[in-house]
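Researcher: Let's try something more involved. This one mixes different molecule types, so please make sure each is placed in the same coordinate frame as the others.
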Amino acid sequence: MSKWPIILAVLLVSPILVGAQAPSSVYGYITELNTGDYLISANIAFSPEGRGTTTNSMGYYELNDIAPGTYTLVSTYIGYKRFEKEITLLPGERLRLDISLEPMEYRLQDVVVESKMQNEVRRNIGIAHVSASLVNDLPSVVQTDLFRSLQLLPGITSASDFSSGLYVRGGSPDQTLILLDNATVYNPSHFFGFYSTFNPSAIGDVNLYKGNYPSQFGERLGSVISINSKEGSQNKFGGTVDLGLLALGASLEGPLGKNGSWMLAMRRSTLEPMLGVLRKSYEDIPEHFYFTDLNGKVSGNINPNNKVSLSFYSGLDNLVFPVGKDVGIDLKYGNQIISSKWRHILSDNLFTEINISNSRYYNFPGVNVASTYYERSNGIHDVSVSAKVEYLPEGNHEFLVGLWIKDQTLSFEDREDQYVTFETEIRSLYSSLYLQDNWMLFDNVMFSPGVRINQIIGGDFFRAEPRLSFEYRPIEPLRLQAAYGQYSQFMTLISNDSFTGLDVWLTATDQVPPAYGDQFALGIKTIPRAGYKIDAELYYRTMSSLFEPDPFLPDWSGMNYRDIFRFGKGYAYGIELFMERHIGDLTGFMGYTYSVTRRRFPNFNEPLARKGTAGFYPTRFDRSHDLNLVMEYQFNAQWSASTVFSLASGQPFTKPLARSKTFNSPLSATDSPQIITGKVHGSRLPPYHRLDLSCTRTGTFWGVAVTELQVQVINVYSRRNIWFYNYNLDHNLAKRNEVRLLPLMPSISYSIKF
Amino acid sequence: MNPTASCILVLFLVSGCELYNQEQYQEYYAVEAYLIAGHQMPSVWVTKTTSIDDFFYWDSVGVSNANVQVRLLSNDHAVSESYGFMHGNHGKYYPADSVIVKSNRWYQLKVDLPGGDVIVAETFVPGTFKTVKQPKPAYLYQGEVPIEIVSTRSSFPGRQTYYYITVNAENPVENKLTPFYRDLVNRNGEFIKAYIKNTIGITNEESYQTNKDGNIIIRVPWAAIAFYGQNDIVINAIDDNIYDFLRSQNGQRDARLSVSLGEIQNIRYNVDGGIGIFGSMASVVSRVEIKKP
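Model: All components are placed in one shared frame. Result:
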């Protein structure tokens, strides 16, 4: 017998034999050592050849098609110590290797540890990022505040020095969805908007989508801020104490069992002792004026494939204020949230996350004028259930499918002397299904199509909203980006840019259609040299069917719900430039925005001589130019300083041009002035500018804790920017008074971390 | 010039242009007249506006040589009757004849001005109503017994009745001010005169209770009482023109939840060719004494 058939058979079978030995693979999760929280976009690679990948949104990684052998596996993540481990892969083996990265305790002066992928995700179109350390280090008015730090980013403006409200890319604050652990926060402010409700000690990470947010989010026309509560340490008991001029805060954290942790944080304002002293000398000082925040979270790994967490938040503002003789204000408002999350690994490339949350907002203002009681009650109570599945098939796709259902009850009631003058209770059941694919078409081309399908169950509203983004990298590190999306919004907010304590939410119904709009964006981003970034984004957005209560309705009694609204439209466009240096002792960024924001409502802003021709007008928060320069310098391990300089166009206001009077009214004993104004917001206040400084010293507290003393000076050269004008027509010649913003303000804070 | 510099230059040129400019002052003619159902035809004021930067003298803004007419219209808005007016002084025009205003009818104001300008405004006079249960003669201020007046319903086509209730003090002197208003006068420097005809603003008919006869029970809140002593409570059912005028005029003075501080918006004038108010109302009056506790 010829030996050739045997040789041929061996040759034919040999690939099968070889195939049976290869390939091997390694997979697992990368988590934070102390908290056990998954790290997103962490790097993992084989050394020295460099083949690697990054973790997905659930901290999962997978490296396939690896020849059997012994390798050194390296994982890095910004702010964490490098992880290295030698592994041996047997033929066909699928090795699970979960990695816990340890945070760096000391600032490294010369070594920059960066997760490239993480940085790149943070520079996707429409996304902005502020690090937690930046929030703490920047000078801020009296107390550290997350939202005031976000206001420094291009595309985001503030209403005034007194407001922490976010006006993102031409959107009013209600157009930004604010999520805390996936639960909606309806009023994110304390002290009438002076501060946000988010205690920095209880915040984990913050993701801000200024526009063109992906299909997994909905509910708002403009933008999304998703905040995750901080997870407690799985290894040791610890805590913080924060002493500020306005509030006192404390937090505790520690391990829970073998694989779990807990965190509890509280904050309370400390104005009351000062008010007590003032009451002895002055009248009309509030009897009560305080806010409280209580955050908590427990989380743990049931097993390697299941992680659960439960978090809660409760915040309250309480004001009891005898404004004058026989008149007093009583105001309570706040949010309560409880949210649970279950992350489950179905298989190596299939992940699920189920979230159930409950959010409540309440607002009970009351005024007593000469024994006449005017009371209002506004509340929202919602229960949300969401589930998402992430599928990572072999190839260049990352699929995300999700379902979201919200059962929301909104109530509103006005009372006068115990009599109900207007009331409504609206229950809405919203549902959304969303699909998203991140498709790497080529090595340098990424296409991310998505769609979100919204429906009000029981209503007529049904809407499919496409969300698309595209990125092309002609050369490294240049990134060219484009995005388009449709968005809708079911809720509207009656608020005031000067004080938010009386905020009232109302919702769309079958009679009141939701608002909707389109967003377009173009971006160009590059890294001119190591440690520097330059980003530019151009945006244009439309807003249709905007609904808001007619501000001139004196009484809603007996009116149909639809009739209290006016319906309008708007648009906004702008260009944002962002330059950042994040290397060396001197770090910081410069953000510049040129923007245009317009609205139009019927019977508003129409020339007196041409009724029915209402024109578009700039919003109060329209700022043509907005420049922020942020710098931080690390002198040594103990001392650092930071500065913020802001320069912006003056805010628009409506200028009175003429006056007249009614002389003969049977309804009044006095002549009543009539003011004839020019175009709505057709004039501008003088330009706004301000310089703030902060100096921080880090030390130890008897060797058992790390301390931080921060001294700040707000408005260093005491520029008295104008807040608004008041016109006094009691005189023959109208008198214009300037009401000004903050003068120079020093402040000091002290924190202890153990 | 390189492309980057060009882009920056274009950006600054574009952004330097203000895309939305404010108007300049323009003079308007203003009219003022209030028709009350069942009352004599009122006088009409014709004036001019003044620039906000100039002094305002009431006796110099009157327009003296206008031709003023008020016309009673039929349901199809044709002119049924026409009433002439004569100029008195400072822009005040008096009716030439004694005419009683009719309820549930349309009236038109037409003013021909010297330069050829014409002002036209129309009002529908609300239906008259009457008091079916008078309030008590006297009340203890902030006592347990509230001031209530039961009245028949007024009428207005296409909507519920809007009321503007005033409390007119007979003897408005400082020592008769109720505590809340005394505080406003003493501490805030408000003028007593502002409270002689005091009000809590516009209220809708549906904000009041209805009794079994279909009449409405109008509560007068203590906050509306500025003076102790004799007061006339005047319940006015107002037309659309007064409603629009007052609600927007109040917005110029008072803070509103959704309007920025210091922000002033134009009054809603239902007047063609100028500004002002040509409104109407139906009214009833009740007298009460408010006793100091």
